[in-house]
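All the exercises in this workshop are built on plain-text protein records. A learned vocabulary of local backbone shapes supplies the integers on the structure line. Once this layout is familiar, the rest of the handout is easier to follow. An example says more than a description, so a record of this kind follows:
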Amino acid sequence: MDPEAPPGANALLHTARQLAGDVLLGRSLDVDAAGTVPEDNLDLLRDAGFYGLWTPREVGGCGFDELERLAILEALAGGCLTTAFVWAQHGGGSAAAARMPVGSPLHDRWARALATGKSRSGVAFAHVLRPEPCLFAERSGDGWSLRGVAPFVTGWGHIDAVLTAAHTADRLVWMLIPAIEAPTLQSRRLCLAAVDSSVTVELHFDGHIVGDDSVVEVISYDEWLAGYRLGLRTNGALMLGVASRALALLGPSPLDAELDTARRALHAAEVDDMPERRAQVGYVGIRATSTLVSSVGGRAITLGHHAQRLAREALFLLVQGQTAEIRAGHLRRLGAADG
């Protein structure tokens, strides 16, 4: 056996569950209040090999498939969602760099560094799903000039690169750019009701120049959306982790079976079924965390108790990675819209 080879999926899942239960959970309340994720937490995930979750072995990654990743995401989210959320943003940039041709500037600069966790990445594309574009790219010499706002970028100060999407007249330009402030690139921190220590910011671009050697692809919106819909399963794994932790603290209940059913349905869902399965997971997550709060009583709303943290995190995940179809599914299940 190659001593340098990354661990297999079962071994890494075992490690994830151990770290979540033995280390991350015990730190989670402090992280929640700290204002930022401790570097020690991110270093733990790096040293265990979790930053390679989205990349092939050729660049130092794990070579796992989607379902193997989901179980690990769920486990880590059940320890400390804030830490897991910052780490999970890494996947987009890391996978993008690994897909670039060997010998290209993006591949040479970022692929192995991101796969091994030597460098970290985040994403800036939540705005792409908005009805009105808010970040634009125009040709400028041998590159692009970016102008506008990326409203939700997580892990600022912890990341070295950010996978960014901007609109042209009829397409999307995807770039992997250094996460470094400049006169043309400024951040404004957001204050979040949950996962605030993720250091989520708005990025303001004012004629920020990005060279063609940092461009991942230029693609139509519809083509991008088809691929994005395939990835909606991933966000559901985070809610599964929060709900699982709440039910573990609650003790045996009928919700255990409901969560298992929702997990299986999410894992098995085809693309067109994904929004409804995400809504199913979200509904169980809200009920699981609310039930824990009710079971604990008054102590549950003190900042020293996990129940209030998990309940706030479930609300956060109800809207994180949400599409119009997922929102409609949540509203139906919560009784605010017709079936």
Observations:
- Residues 9-34 form the longest helix (26 residues).
- DSSP finds twelve helices and eight strands in the chain.
